[in-house]
Amino acid sequence: MHYVKSLFPHTIARFAYCFSLLCVLFASSAFANEAEDLLAEMQEAAQAGNLDSIKDALPQLITRSDELTEVAYTDASAKTSLLLRKTAQREAARVAVNYLRSEAATRLQEAVRYRWMMIISYDLMYFSEFSLAKSMIEQELNDIKTWSPSTKDSKTTQANLYHIYGQLLVRQQRVAQALPYFYQAETWFRSIDEQHPSIFVIYILLGEAFLHAREYQQAETFSRKALAMIPDGRVDAISYLNAILASALNRQQRSQEAMKVIADYLANPVDPRRDYFLYFSLVHIDVLRDLKQFDQALALARSTFALAQEVGNEDYIKDATRQLGYMQSYFGNLTEAEILLKEAIESPSGIRQGNPPEAYLDYVDVLMKLGQYDSALAYYRRYHDAFIEEHQRINRIAIANLEFQQRNQRLEQQKALISTQLALAQANEKRAKLQVSFFVWAIFALTVIAATILLMWLQLRRRSQQLQTMAVEDQLTRFGNRHAFLKAFDRPDYYYLLIIDIDGLKPYNDNYGHQKGDELIQTYSEQLRLRFTSSYAALFRTGGDEFAILIDNTTTIDSINDFMFEAVTGTQKGGFHTMNASYGIATREEAHSDREWISLADQRMYAMKKAK
């Protein structure tokens, strides 16, 4: 009897526990059914074109997810994402963002809320809503970092949010800020699985980030790492990955290797993503241009432009428009080139800030050929600002890499210090010896760090000097470039202006090749340099076959004419027997402005050319 009495409370407790468990399971099943009903309601509304019903149901579905198991809300969010993309529900994705940032959403479980943020971020990127995705994640960054998820799926969510944010920063060309997020995401993925498939994505994104930073060797390294570990079934990014690798090789002046990467992929194209293949095609055009295969580049530029219009990504439309504009300029279609290049420069884009410096330079070249000198000067100034801004950004990236390396070194030092202290606590008799070893190691480590910092600082300084030289110097002739020419007008002691044009360079290139044409330009440049040796003359290459010389008033017109004649005859004796050049001379006092001075010398050059 006593045994029965003592057993009775335990039986009641067990019964109560089982009953409560059944209630929880029943409630969870009920909520799962409600979530399925809401999802079915959204599918029916999408088929009927009822956008308002979808926007009303989506916040309810997110709210109901808080009562589901992890497997259930993960499945529901994945199905919702597929529905939004298939039915192009951009507005519904925006509604989801507003709800997830609301006070009501903060009452959801962190795992549920952050899972939905991850899913909706991917959808927003699919719809090119990059700024909105970035602002949503940015609002929660501190909380996401301090979050301590307990399950594998929620840990994956945390890592994914970090690498999505890093990717969005790269699209803003803020690579220095993006790198720590990629590195942290990789660390989190490795804590889940050393071979986690998302590490493959991280390597792709790091390759892209270093490509934007013009760290081409690192971009190549991470691209090859990604190619070496493609997870099963992950073919959706292969064309994008090959494009990053080809671009990194091409920027290292390894264009033949880049073309081999492109050809190998095209022999077996496995990527179904049109937007990724669009990026691949844009890189393909760059490689064809560098290999001087301009006919193929023009054909590809036209088809890529059409594909960009179909895909609708604003950044890719800008790039495809610019590529087609450059090719039209190369083939002499200047009016079409001017329209396309201006559209590429002035059109808005998604999250990208500004234009690459090369875009302005291509447009300036077309404007100069069209005789629109005022506009050309204005856009050249924009090119100069973009050039300086980009290289300042690249220097910031290099500094950020250095800081990251230093931070890792400090962490390693702290780890070594903790290990040393534990060893000292366990073996007091060896304390003195270990202290001496530690101090020697610390001094050595500090010496290495100091030497590394000094070396990297020297490298940054040398690179900065090289960039300053490149900004004002033509690489083929070592004359001043167009930027240096326009700035030279600020000096009042120049009296004569010569505008020079090599006659018939394009037919020469067509008959003998561009390399031979470059040799002609170099030979003629050296002859000009020999004649105009005075320190009071400044020589510039302002275009492909165009030169300009500014001279003070100590030289006579007759001397200038003699020098120009001798430069032509010297070039002819150098192996270019049919070479000739036209030039025009104008004095500063003949013109009221720099523009008029250039125009006057240019007109006289064309008059000489027509008289031949």
UniProtKB/TrEMBL annotation:
PANTHER family: DIGUANYLATE CYCLASE DGCM-RELATED (PTHR45138:SF9), REGULATORY COMPONENTS OF SENSORY TRANSDUCTION SYSTEM (PTHR45138). Residues 1-32 form the signal peptide. PROSITE patterns: GGDEF, TPR. The keyword Transmembrane applies. This is diguanylate cyclase. Residues 493-612 form the GGDEF domain. It is an enzyme of class 2 (transferase). Residues 394-428 form a coiled coil. Its EC number is 2.7.7.65. It catalyses: 2 GTP = 3',3'-c-di-GMP + 2 diphosphate. Keywords: Coiled coil, Membrane, Signal, TPR repeat, Transmembrane, Transmembrane helix.
